[in-house]
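Let us practice reading a record.
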Amino acid sequence: MTVDERVINVPDHHAGNRLGFRLRRLGCFLALLIWFVLLLLPCFAIFLISQGEVNIQTGDLPGQTLRVWIIEGVRERGIGISSPQVLDAGVQNRSCLITSTHFLLWMGESEPTQVCECYDKQPDASWSPVEALVSVCMPEQ
C-alpha cells in the first residue's frame, strides 16, 4: 500500500465530533454575548441615573416608545418599564396602541397597567387621536 492510498483510506474519527464542535462554538458565542451584556449593564445604569429616563422610539405612532425610568416617590422606589404594542383596528389608516407598564419596585407595591389609544393617519402623514375602540383594545376572552 502506498502513502497516497493510506491517506485516502484513513477513517474520519472526527466526523461525529463536528456537531459537538458547532454546539461548543454556539455555547461560547452565547456566553460571550451574555458577558458583554453584563459588562454594559453598569453603563446603562449610570446613564439611567444621570438622565432619569431612557426613551427609545419604536415607531411613528405618538407615544410608541419603549421607556425605562426611575421611580423616586415617597412610598415607592424602583424602575418603571413601558412597552408599546400596535394593533390593527380593522379600518384603513387607523391603528391602536396598547402601552403596557410594569414596575420593578424595591420599596412599595404597584400593579402593571395597560392603556389603549387609537389614531387615524391624516393625509399629511400625521396622526390624530380618535376614541379608543373597545373591540380592539379589549378583545373577547
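A brief commentary: Residues 85 and 103 are 17 Å apart (CA to CA).
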